[in-house]
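Revision sheet: structure tokens.
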Amino acid sequence: MKTEQWNSKIIIVEQFESNNQLLSDDSMGIYFHLADNNQMIIHFKPLNEVFKQEVFTTSEGLLINFERDLIDEDDIEYALDVMSLFNKYPKFILNKLLEIKQVQSIIGLLKTEYNNKEASYIMFKTVLKVLILHLIRYQNNQFLDQDLNQKRVFQFLELMETEFLNQTKTLFYANKMGISTKRLNQILKEKLNLTAKQIIQQRQVTEAKRRLVKSEITTKELAFLLDFDSVSSFSRFFKKNIGVSPTIFKTDYKKNIP
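Predicted:
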């Protein structure tokens, strides 16, 4: 796959200035900025979200933005770890010089491959995975020192990622975690500014879009897969979140395929 064909899947942007530079809603973003105090500040953009405004106080950093496809091609455990990485903390700080140098080194390899006229998609994807695995390791090391509520957020996100196709009720997750639905929503609102239902619905939207463009699934089959009572209720839900019906969304996507 040629570098010029990557723009639909991967972009690297230096002097990142606004969310308008991002790929689709179904993309994930990592913004790296080296602060004056020799800290590396890393911001994560999960699926269906944008970067917080504080990211744009400086344009001296670097953005790596990629479509979800790049992690879906790998095993489920890796994909789950990536989802957790992007949802634990919107902002993550590296303080250790060795870790910062390791991240900078990997980013250098990514930039070199990205700008190479004979670039290899597999090589780029592999180096990106190495970068993400390093960030997962660093984040998990710091995660051990975080408060109980932050750990509950991680527990919910991990559980939701594996169960959302069959379980869409907040009560199920609260029972699994041994807390009340009210307490679960309080924790999620405090840490992510979203309720459990809103997070589950975001995940349903992402999965619906992915299935519509990656398979020949029908709207009826998709409604059943995502645990909706009827096709009409799923269609209303999809249109409310995306702005068009599932059928139109799929048709428009196919029209735009080169």
